[in-house]
Amino acid sequence: MAKKKVTTILDNAVMTDAGLTLNGVVLQQVIDKCEGCERVMDHASGGNYCTSYAQPASKWSHGVCNFATHVRAEKDTGGKVKINPLKASKRAARGR
Ligand code: SF4
């Protein structure tokens, strides 16, 4: 069975003097934190680029990238667990 060729948005990108460009935006290569993400694609120019975000380094600058497929952003709730108020009132009514 023939393997399907996966087309990505990077197929429309062109190499310019400024770098790999897509619709006027210069794409930056992925960073080490992106390693393992399914959105990393090789480009014919020789670099690895993200298919979802033009500047991967800035995507990681405020914590975990929310597009990442290999890690999950976790919210620090400070030890508090949010309980559905409806369920909490039913539990209280049952005496639990
Ligand atoms: S989605 Fe996020 S983690 Fe994945 S390659 Fe793009 S910038 Fe990196």
TrEMBL record:
This is Uncharacterized protein. InterPro entries: PxxKW_fam. It comes from Desulfovibrio ferrophilus.
